[in-house]
Each structure stands twice: as C-alpha cells, then as structure tokens.
Amino acid sequence: MPFKKNIIRMEIGPSLLASDLSNLASEAERAVQAGADYLHIDVMDGHFVPNITLGPPVIKSLRAHSDAFFDCHMMVANPEQWANEIAISGGNRYTFHLEATKEPIKLAKQIKNLKMEVGVALKPATEITALDGLIEHVDLVLIMTVEPGFGGQKFMHQMLSKVEYLRRRYKTLNIQVDGGLNSETLEKAAKAGANSIVAGSSVFSYKDLKKNCFTREKN
C-alpha cells in the first residue's frame, strides 16, 4: 500500500442494505461476530436518489440490539434536516453528500456538535477538487465507486484516481469506498489508498460471513 499501516487502519464495514432486512438485528450481530469493524447504514429519501430505505426509526430500533459503530450514509436531499434525528437514533458517523448541501462546512460543524463523526461523500461525476477547503472539517471522505441509490452495481475502476489523489495529499485521512466491492476490487481500492471498505452483496451473499472479504488481511 502507498501509506504506512501504522498511520491508518484498514477497516471493513458490511452494508446492511444487502442483508436480510426481515432479520436486521440478527444480521447486524452476525456481521459483527464475523469481524465487521462497523456497520454501514444507507439512508435514502427518494429525492436525492430514486430509492427509499432505512430511516431514523429503524436505526433507533437496531441500536437497542447492537453496540456496533453505526456509519450512516445519508443519501438525502436535505442532510441538515436529519442530523439531529440520526444522532438521537444512535448514529456514530453522519456522512452527507457534498452535492446535497450549499453549506458543507456549516453542516460539518452541526454534525460535530451532535457528537458524531463527520463524513462527506462524492458521487462519481463530482470532481475531487470540489472538496478543497473542506477536508480539515471532516473525519472521512467517501468516494462512491457506483452511482448511489441501488446495491449490486458494477465497480467503477476510474474512481480510484480520486482515491489516489486524496491519499497523496492526506496521509492520515480516512478514505472510504462504497459500491461493487469484492475480494478483487477491495485489493485494488486498498492499493489506491482506501482504508475503509464498504461491502454489501459480497458479504451477505455468504451463509458463513467469515468466508468472504472478512478473511482478507486488514492491517
């Protein structure tokens, strides 16, 4: 990898959207027992992306059954509106899309004041330079390697240039990738500089979660 492993830690977080949603609590526990570093929770409002998924009430219910780190990916049109709700529901990280807000620094401060980590996500079409001036205010940058909104899409290899760009400039930044990750693309993303891997279908398609990407070297 192009960064020293004692600077940042490789983490893998399964996306619960790809799990058996009729058994969400047990699926979350199954992932944690298999070695998940965090649980990735996709929140979609049907406006920012053409799909509707889990929201604050479900997150609150799940929190009653799990002590895991909840990484909330907010694919919503008005991220300022939901920050307080997610914090109350038990979210640990609030990742908003840069494309969804006109005042990202103000939103980042709002999230910090709610005692959550701050993540900022970029759609594939958004230039990486759009993050200029914002990095110092966030804990994580999420580079989408598919179009946000639906699971099971093909990994967009060209997005790794954004990961490489960020890693060259920010040696200790947490860089997350999400979309189309499997054992092959995980290795490529890590080599480019990503240290936080979101994996959905490639995790929950296995009955024994320990036989998928959790078996990969994470350090």
Walk me through what this model shows:
The protein is an alpha/beta fold and 219 residues long. The chain has one domain (11-215): TIM Barrel (Alpha-Beta Barrel), CATH 3.20.20. It has helices spanning 24-34, 56-63, 79-89, 104-113, 160-169, 183-192, 201-204; strands at residues 11-14, 39-44, 70-75, 93-97, 117-122, 140-144, 174-178, 196-199. An eight-stranded parallel beta sheet has the order 1-8-7-6-5-4-3-2. Helix 2 packs parallel to helix 3 (79-89). The longest helix has 11 residues, at 24-34. The chain is globular and about 40 Å long. The termini are close together. Mean pLDDT is 90; it is low at 1-6.
Mind summarizing the main beta sheet? Answer: 8 strands, parallel
The whole-number mean of residue pLDDT values reads 90
SS elements, strand count: 8
Strand order of the largest sheet: 1-8-7-6-5-4-3-2
- The CATH architecture category equals Alpha-Beta Barrel
The DSSP helix count reads 7
Helix content: 25-40%
Give the overall shape: globular
Tell me the domain tally. Answer: 1
The CATH homologous superfamily name equals Aldolase class I
SSE arrangement, N to C: EHEHEHEHEEHEHEH
CATH class (first level) name: Alpha Beta
Alpha-beta content class = alpha/beta
Stretches where pLDDT falls below 50 for ≥5 residues?
1-6
For the terminal residues, how far apart are their CA atoms? Answer: 10 Å
The share of residues in extended strands comes to: 15-25%
Question: Would you give the CATH topology?
Answer: TIM Barrel
Give the C-alpha Rg: 16 Å
